[in-house]
Batch of 2 targets.
Target 1
Amino acid sequence: MTAFGEVELEALYERLEKPVYNVVYRWLWNPEEARDVVQDAFVRLWRMRRRIELATVEPLVYKIALNLARSRLRRRRIIRWVGFDAVAPTLRDPQDVEAGVARSEDQARVREAVLALPDDLRQVIVLCEFSGMKYEQIAEALSIPPGTVGSRRHRALTKLRELLA
Amino acid sequence: MDLRDDETDRLFPVLDPPPGGLTRLRARIRQDRRRRTASWGLVTAAAGIAALVLAVLVLTPAPRKIRALPGLESDLLAIQLGIVDPPREPVSVRPDLRNEFAVRRIPTTDERVVFYLVGSRSGGPASPPEGGEL
């Protein structure tokens, strides 16, 4: 088993921070929460370092990050249902408003469409689009057969096209 | 394997994460390491205390049973059989006070327990002098 120390963790973080962030962001649609989940995922990975194999760590990172994102989304839904979070999220930077109203509208439509996908299709499409992993690795991260990754990706894109037409 | 194409590029633009991620991660790891070291210290201390308590329990001798004075039972049996004389009555009235006080032995169901009734012959309250013997 290859040693997994702080140096290896940092190298892995530098390589995977951006793709994992993009995957998690498409789950939570909130930059701060997505950043926190990425951090939490790597801290968990650090705690498990003696039990993991560096060569096959990548699917594990996505698996942990997706699980954390799902938990956070569930918690957010419960909080919203109970009524503690009545304030709608707002754009923080005024430049966002000027620079990209049209883009924001497009992104809002995409967001609605992605959120409308069932979980199993959504996790496949975001991993396929952002992780850069092979089907086999995505299959390992999601604990499904590799063939299912391709079929789910196809179904997810078809559904997205329908929703965005 | 790049699974992206023009369509997905348009749908899913790649975003940059907020800056300072690696610095935050380093701080989190340091904090996590400190917390774990502290909790290991607590676990070690608790284990030490538990071992000490166990050692005290194991090494402390069991309390000895309180036994009757040796020979007491056989003495009583000897008295009952008439082999030896019973002991002298431990409570008696001094000869110069015998006109004033009287002592009567009250029998009980236990031979080893004896009550004495001390009374005034004149009918007043009995107030024996200090010292045991009347």
Note: Residues 18-59 of chain B form one domain.
Target 2
Amino acid sequence: MGVKEATVVHQYAYQFVENIAYREDIWAIYDEVQRMIVIIEETKLNRILSSPTVSSEDKAGFVRNLRQSSYRFINDLIETLIQDENYDLLLPTLEDILLKISKSKNEYDMVVTSFQALTEEQKQRLTAIVEERFSVKVHNVIEEIDKELLGGFIVNVNHRVIDTSVRAQLGDIRKKL
Amino acid sequence: MITVLSTSATILGNFILVTASFLTLIILIRVFAWKNLTGIFEQRAEKIAGEIDAAEEKNQAAAALVKQRQVELEQSRIEGKKIIQDAVARAKVEKKHIVDQADVEAQALKDKAKLEIAAEKREAQEQLKVQVASLAVDLAGKIILEDLDQAAHSALIDRYIDRLGEK
């Protein structure tokens, strides 16, 4: 993504967050945006929206299928993107919206990648430690399983990482050897 | 008798006449033609003498030329000998130079080969070290995977969370 596109994405996201900043249901909107991102990533819709071989009409049709949110702000944003024919900026705009909401509230999603699923108690303890250490609030705990870690876990909050995985520790040992 | 005398007188008269005529002829030749006759002989003699002189001069010139050629030939021989000696001397110097240069190049190649061998040896040792370390770490990973069950993994996670809380 070039500087021009990044600027446009910032403007869309900034405008959106400005409109919902003082709403009480801001986290519900956040979750709705997050669900849309999951749908786009799972269906690989962004590839179609970025493809030069797909016509604008088809892209508009695909995007309008997403425009069924219960939140007017989200539907308006999608319609604006359609009107501007900035279909390929949909996913980066939604991701930027999540980031901006998190920043405005100092509340972020915590991504925990582990060898096996953490228990609820472990997640709570980890959340408390991360909130204290990084001085942030944790909104959602997103769990990912990766057997390549061999053990332990990796925590990622607002681009800050705690890596306790066995793989990383073995890597350190390898370097020392 | 008289006849004999008359005949003798006739012979004598003829003789005197012939002798006088001969003498007259001789005198006439000496007076009028002698110079011409002797002039021709003198001219021939002078010509022959001139030719003999010219031949002698040519002989002398040829002898001088022969001598000059002999001198030049001798000089040429000396120069040729000198050129050969110089060429031999130069060849010796060149040979020494080539041999010295070859020695230097051979030594340089030898040194370079030694350095390359040493570098390759070091690289091989490093690679071996890395491979051994990788094998050891991979083995450790496999052992951890095989030996740790779900409860052990959960305990490991708890331990890491405890450590994070302590820091």
Note: The domain at 3-103 of chain A is CATH 1.10.520 (Peroxidase; domain 1).
